[in-house]
Design goal:
Length: 444
Amino acid sequence: MKILLLGEQPLGFSSQDCHQHSDIESLLDELQINHCIVVNLAEPQQSVVLKQLRAHELAYLVPIFYAVEANAESQVLADGNFDEQAQLSCSTYLERLARLHPTLQSQTNRLISFLWLLPQRRISPFYDATKWYYRYPLLECWQEQSHSAWLNSLEKEAVLSKAELIDRVRQCKSCKSSTLNYVETCPSCNSIDVSLYSALHCFTCGHVASQAEFQQNSALVCPNCQTQLRHIGVDYDRPIENHRCNSCSQLFIDGEVRANCHSCGTSNRLEELSEELWHAYRLAERGELWAQSGKQTSLMPEGLGEPVSSEHFRWLLGWQNQLAQRHQQEHLLLALHFSNLQQLYSELPSSTVFAQLDEFFERFQNLIRQTDIVCRWNQDLLMFLLPNFAPEHSKVLEAKLLSLAEEQTDNPLELSVRFRQIPNSELAEQAEQWLLNLVAELRQ
């Protein structure tokens, strides 16, 4: 892989290893999709350049590394330090680039392509200390606003998934600002003018006052009854109320903590604060399928016979199992595993493999009924729910499936087939484990 260096040549680099550039314009003129970039600039210039590169129509995809040092924002924008691990990342990038579908153009497709090409990539938040809030620098390069809404939408569609919880941020109930000052206040009058209060309690007469009032010539003497206090716990003790309000003179144990907003001035009780969670996101399985096929699989089918999501399929399976138990019906679950799919991916372009899968799927749809439920469980596994299907017909269907796979003379698909009758008591009790056992059996 060709390395394009922006900035001074660091120690350990030779002129044969990289093509050095002094400005970003000349680097972008030479850049191709199968290159990588190493940036060696001082901060904050380095983070500014990284933003420009990630906003570029081609440079946003390629591996970008920093040579020596990087601030927190640059670390979020780049793919890490240029070391031995970076060399492995470049090899992974080239391998996955050959499998990336070429028609991905929209903002969402740009995000999916970026995450797909290097599995360790994340969309991570960065805390901007100058503005007192988190933001997503990578998304700012591709989209101007509504970052959280966009990420939440893609997560609900199972295109992205949460990789790590970065922070929990408390916000003002009024203006949603997180610039809060936590201060202890008097529980009686809410004044912030409170202080520690050291008091004594005389056992002889019960008088309570500040310790200063008991001090007489280096001894402790009750100002009320003149008893000399020698032993704590015998002559006197200290009250548990160790705070005093200087506004209303109230004594108390612990004050009420309030969060005063520096943006709008609202005083918030702690239970009134709203909370925002900031996560790092990675590509989910539906996003990986999208990157390779160029097709978005919807959570809900557009019509009868269209594939449903795995989440919807699980729900339908449990629902049909209960109906079958109640009404003495017989259904059939069919699971298909393409056992040589990974081998085909290594030998053929991903677009060719997906074309073979689509061709097989279209032929198979002619064998089943429009009311049968179809689910692309993952890249190498299909599941079908066949309502009111007689078990004795399963062998005939299996033979037709195997013949369909063998009809593809160029790199034929190798199939493993399993049938399960419904209703099933194990499905009713442990649906998730029942399905996992079926998948494990297919992949043996």
